[in-house]
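Translate sequence into structure tokens.
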Amino acid sequence: MLARLQRFITLGLLAFALLWGVLAWRSCSVAWALAGALLISLGYALVLAFEFLLMRMAHGDDPVPRATVTQLLRAWWGEVCSAPLVFCWRQPFRSEHWPDYLPSEAQGRRGVLLVHGFFCNRGVWNHWLERLHARGAPCVAINLEPIFGSIDDYVGIIDAAIGRLERASGLPPLIVAHSMGGLAVRRWLNERGNEARVLHVFTVATPHHGTWLARFALTANGRQMQQSSAWLRALAAREPARRYARLTCFYSHCDNIVFPPSTATLTGADNRFLPCAAHVHMVSRPEPWQAVLTLLD
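Result follows.
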């Protein structure tokens, strides 16, 4: 469903930019044609800049060091390059290019479950899936639906994927979750999982304590990610403190979606700081991949 929606948005914006360019060109205004087409095509970069500005303003007295202007610019540029690749290509057009990999010889080989975040689908993990295929590692990447439903709705999807990996490999898998996906995994652990069903959980840019930006959310899962929401408090109340030792949390002071930065950490977890890393770009950073490889090997 999300792939169709993002295809419609991507093709619609391209058609609008082309139409604007043609009409302005015919009216003998080349400058307006180029300026309008660029604004329509690259306007998302201005939206990202506004998110970074909000992140900078909302940092407050968060214990994580405040990012410098140079670091913010580097992170903004990384996100400007990553966002169209993910939201205009991999997710709308290539989300099924790399299928789940559960070969007959998977028994005894550790599997990996990949869980995406808000307004994403399994296409965000294409680069990970390609590398896992190359290593012969069993892997499953899921789609969390309904897109704008409650995070509670995703428990069954995660449980079914875990079951597939358990049956194929005979071993508890590793889980790698981006953004909201980390909250969905924690919800699954409370409802149907336990420490015996998963070796380790890696979260990347997950709003474990909510995010300042979610105060503007209109969707059910967005409201659940508001700072100190009732849903987040209920989630944490059901978790034994020892569980966090099985989590590695990657976070950044340049995350333009999950901020202030310490909201992406958990007390007792292995919290790993990624400098100059924006929200979507964090998925392609080498540090999470290397951490997963260490346990796979």
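Note: Residues 30-57 form the longest helix (28 residues).
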